Structure formats: structure tokens, C-alpha cells
UniProtKB/TrEMBL annotation:
<keyword id="KW-0812">Transmembrane</keyword>
<dbReference type="GO" id="GO:0008381">
    <property type="term" value="F:mechanosensitive monoatomic ion channel activity"/>
</dbReference>
<dbReference type="InterPro" id="IPR011066">
    <property type="entry name" value="MscS_channel_C_sf"/>
</dbReference>
<dbReference type="InterPro" id="IPR023408">
    <property type="entry name" value="MscS_beta-dom_sf"/>
</dbReference>
<feature type="domain" description="Mechanosensitive ion channel MscS">
    <location>
        <begin position="120"/>
        <end position="183"/>
    </location>
</feature>
<dbReference type="Pfam" id="PF21088">
    <property type="entry name" value="MS_channel_1st"/>
</dbReference>
<dbReference type="InterPro" id="IPR006685">
    <property type="entry name" value="MscS_channel_2nd"/>
</dbReference>
<dbReference type="InterPro" id="IPR049278">
    <property type="entry name" value="MS_channel_C"/>
</dbReference>
<feature type="domain" description="Mechanosensitive ion channel transmembrane helices 2/3">
    <location>
        <begin position="77"/>
        <end position="118"/>
    </location>
</feature>
<protein>
    <submittedName>
        <fullName>Small conductance mechanosensitive channel</fullName>
    </submittedName>
</protein>
<dbReference type="InterPro" id="IPR011014">
    <property type="entry name" value="MscS_channel_TM-2"/>
</dbReference>
<keyword id="KW-1003">Cell membrane</keyword>
<dbReference type="InterPro" id="IPR045276">
    <property type="entry name" value="YbiO_bact"/>
</dbReference>
<dbReference type="Pfam" id="PF00924">
    <property type="entry name" value="MS_channel_2nd"/>
</dbReference>
<dbReference type="GO" id="GO:0005886">
    <property type="term" value="C:plasma membrane"/>
</dbReference>
<feature type="domain" description="Mechanosensitive ion channel MscS C-terminal">
    <location>
        <begin position="190"/>
        <end position="274"/>
    </location>
</feature>
<dbReference type="Pfam" id="PF21082">
    <property type="entry name" value="MS_channel_3rd"/>
</dbReference>
């Protein structure tokens, strides 16, 4: 019998082996069951975690909403990683892979790789301290280096920031050295109002003060009634008065725009004009002619 015939005979015997196909079919069924159970378990655990946080929201002592949103996203990721890793190990064990030996070898390889992946370790450690120290949370408006926007995700390795124009910046946590968080405390809206030199300054101030007292009932983002500080500056054609208002975090731009509109409408109602640039022309020749006539 030739070697080719022997080879084909072994292939035929292998393919017609009932025990082999029984093991394969059993393994496939077990793999599908493991994946289904892992998916269901992952969803159940996530729902349970979300419900626990909903219950904590009604408790007298609770963490901030910012911290809750950050921890929820982090726990969702951890649950997904852990459950599917266990599922993968169980699937390998189902097909007869020596999982213990594989994990032991992976530990040695991981130790060797760890020395060459110091930046990855740095990212993970930094991410842990960002969450532990509550430096910033999901939903905060922050500036990190040259990037500025709302925090979408904080992971153990990367942080995602979405700018107001829609770009998403993905930053390794190890590269985050300085953070400016605009969402921790109230903001301040600053608006400058110009009045012409010919206008009645005291009347304009009184009109603006009456308006400012009415605005907190109209705009809920105002923490306190706006305040007219007084005359801020003199320019070539106008007197500049400054209005400030304490607002909820990151609502100062909206309130500043609303203040400008409300003040403009109220000044128009009282006939107080906002100045416009003026240009005075001086005719030297005409002035000299008048002076000559006067001397004569």
C-alpha cells in the first residue's frame, strides 16, 4: 500500500470517527450555551448595578451625579471584560485546551511584556487615580493640554473628550498631567453695556438695575440676581458699564447672550441709544479763514 493511500485512509477514518464528531458537536453546543449565558449574565449584572445606583440616589447620603455617571460606565466595562474573559476560558476548556498551563504561560509572557509596556502600565495607574481622586467625571467640561470639551468616557487606559464642534479626542491617561475642570463650581457671565456720552448715565443705570432684578425668575440658570458694577471704562465715543451674573457651571455663555438681548430691548423701550462710532472732520483751511476775518 502506497503512502498516499495510507494518508487518505487515515483522513477517511478521521472524518468518519463518530466519537470525534460527537465531541465537536457537544463542544459547539456548549460554546453557544456559554456565550448565551455570558451575554444574559452581563446584561443582568449591568441592570442590577444601575438599579443599585438608582436606589442610592434616594438615600440621604449619596455621591455626586458626576461621580455616579463615571462609576457606572467604568463598572459596565469591568463587568463586560470579566464575564467574557471567563467565558473564553470556559470555551477553551470545553475543547480540551489546557487552560491552567496556558494561563501560567501567559503570566510569564505578560511579565516579560510588562517591562516593555511601561506606558500602558502608566496609563492604567493614572486612570485609577483620576477616578479615585475624582479629578473629573463623565459630563464635565474640561481642558486637557490643547484639547477642550465634555468628558464622554473615562477608562482605565484612555479618556475621551468631545469638543463643542463634534470632534472626539482620545487621550491616553498617562499623558494627562494638567487638567482644568470648568464644571466643579459656578461660572460667571460678564457683559459690557455701552452708553453714549450724551445719554443720561444715571437713568440708564436705573433702567438696567430694574431689569436685572426681574431676570432670575425668567432664567433658572442664574444662581443669583445679576449685578451692575458701574462704569467700567471710557472710550472715544462711549461709556462702558459692566454687568456680572453668577450662573450654574458652564451656563455663563448662554446667560451672557440672554443678558445682552434683554438689556438691548429694555434700553430701546426707554429711548436710551447704544452709541455708534463717530468721526469728526477738521478743515484747517476753513479755520484759518475764520481766524483771519476775526483779526480783520
Amino acid at each position: 500500500m502506497s503512502s498516499i493511500e495510507t494518508f487518505y485512509r487515515h483522513i477517511f477514518t478521521f472524518l468518519t470517527n463518530e466519537d470525534f464528531w460527537m465531541r465537536v458537536s457537544t463542544g459547539i453546543v456548549q460554546m453557544i450555551m456559554i456565550i448565551v449565558i455570558a451575554t444574559v449574565l452581563s446584561k443582568v449584572l449591568k441592570i442590577a448595578v444601575h438599579n443599585i445606583f438608582k436606589v442610592r440616589q434616594k438615600a440621604p447620603i449619596r455621591i455626586s451625579e458626576r461621580r455616579e455617571a463615571t462609576l457606572l460606565k467604568l463598572l459596565d466595562n469591568v463587568i463586560t471584560y470579566v464575564i467574557y474573559f471567563i467565558a473564553l476560558v470556559m470555551i477553551l476548556d470545553t475543547f480540551g485546551v489546557a487552560v491552567r498551563t496556558l494561563l501560567a504561560g501567559a503570566g510569564i509572557v505578560g511579565l516579560a511584556v510588562g517591562f516593555g509596556a511601561q506606558s500602558l502600565v502608566k496609563d492604567v495607574i493614572t486612570g485609577f487615580f483620576i477616578i479615585f481622586e475624582d479629578q473629573f467625571s463623565v459630563g464635565d467640561y474640561v481642558r486637557i493640554g490643547n484639547f477642550e470639551g465634555y468628558v464622554e468616557t473615562i477608562g482605565l487606559r484612555v479618556t475621551k473628550i468631545k469638543s463643542w464642534t463634534g470632534e472626539v479626542h482620545i487621550l491616553p491617561n498617562g499623558s494627562i498631567t494638567q487638567v482644568t475642570n470648568f464644571s466643579l463650581h459656578n461660572s460667571v457671565a460678564v457683559v459690557d453695556v455701552s452708553v453714549s456720552y450724551e445719554g443720561d448715565i444715571e437713568r440708564a443705570e436705573q433702567t438696567i438695575r430694574e431689569l436685572l432684578a426681574e431676570l432670575p425668575a425668567k432664567y433658572e440658570d442664574m444662581v443669583a440676581p445679576p449685578e451692575l458694577l458701574g462704569i467700567q471704562n471710557f472710550t472715544s465715543s462711549e461709556v462702558v458699564m459692566r454687568v456680572v451674573c453668577e450662573t450654574k457651571p458652564m451656563r455663563h455663555m448662554f446667560i451672557a447672550r440672554a443678558l445682552r438681548k434683554e438689556i438691548k430691548l429694555r434700553l430701546d423701550e426707554h429711548g436710551i441709544e447704544i452709541p455708534f462710532p463717530r468721526l469728526v472732520l477738521y478743515n484747517r483751511q476753513e479755520e484759518e479763514t475764520k481766524r483771519a476775518k476775526t483779526d480783520a
